[in-house]
Amino acid sequence: MSAVVVVGAGIVGASVSYHLARRGVPVTLLEQGPAPASGVTKHSFAWIGSAGGHWPGGAQDLREYVLADYRRLETDVPHVVVRWTGSLSWADTPAESSRPGPGQFRIGRSDIATLEPNLRHPPDQAIHTPSDAGVDPTALTHALVAAAGAHGATVLHDTTVISLQMTNGRVEGVLTPTGLHPATTVVLTAGTGVPKLCEPLTADLAIADSPATLARVAAPPGLVKRIVARPEFEVREVQDGELVLVVPHVEGTAAVCEQAAQDALQHLKTAFRGSDQCRLLGYGIGRRPVPRNGPVIGYMTHERSVYVAVMHSAITLAPTVGRLIADELVTGSPSSELQRCRPPVH
């Protein structure tokens, strides 16, 4: 296959580049930041699961492959670490109003206390999903980019895409401050930045910009055993001694946002025994791309030179989507699993 340029080294671009490079495709991965996962990826809670959650549009067709593709990456890619902890979730309303899905179980207070022994006041009931997992999104993205490079991909950081280079309606590469990067196919994986990259092709893509605030917290290792989603917050251990905590998003000054992060930390301390020494390491706001009708994946042009891949949740879907996109580009045959994800073609 001829050369491919992938724009955006977040989790989706990293996965696409790795899966293409391992199949022998000449790939150039361009990232405007100083390192992979410089954008929204590093602010992801990175909760991976296939049992619960919302799976709009074509995401539903990808759901069954998510866990197996993560197991595959663990085997195939050096330094990929998946924490298969399972999850516990409950809401303000009684658990009886939430029916467990396939692979989920409603459990009582004593079982909750066994699974999460540092929880001060376990609820009467919660939903337990043993198959759920989490990753460090930045570390995972770096591992995929490194693996892509090991298979021959060229990775360029601090490289802003000015525009797509087009001749007679066909894209022939991307223009950057350092010159033209020629390609037979350009794959756009830059999240909320995709619409600006190929106007007017993306004018009819409905991609919302959804903000999310996450905090990193230093904590005693093992303080939180599983992914815990309770009414006040969501928290999990992203690596030994470090938690990632979802903060209710507020618009305002840096001081206002930091106060929201401190308030979430206080909720955490109230909820878990042994958390007195927890401290805030930092927080960040990610602008998540949320397509209105589910993942948008496929060619944007009839001559098949521009391919787009935008989705939520990108962390969950990236290994599966990267594999399927690489298969489409290499074989030239459309993937039936991606059929309901297609964008309008121009």
If strands are numbered along the chain, what order do they take across the biggest sheet? 6-7-5-15-16-17-14-18
Assembly of the depicted chains: single chain
Derived from helix and strand composition plus strand pairing, the structural class reads alpha+beta
* Overall radius of gyration: 21 Å
Ends distance: 23 Å
CATH architecture of the largest domain: 3-Layer(bba) Sandwich
Described by the principal axes of the CA atoms, the overall outline is globular
The tally of structural domains comes to: 2
The main sheet comes to:
8 strands, mixed
Task: Report the mean per-residue pLDDT as an integer.
Answer: 91
Percent in strands = 25-35%
Helix content: 25-40%
Number of helices: 8
Highest-level CATH class of the largest domain: Alpha Beta
Q: Specify the CATH homologous superfamily of the largest domain.
A: FAD/NAD(P)-binding domain
Q: Which residue ranges are poorly predicted, with pLDDT under 50 across at least 5 consecutive positions? A: none
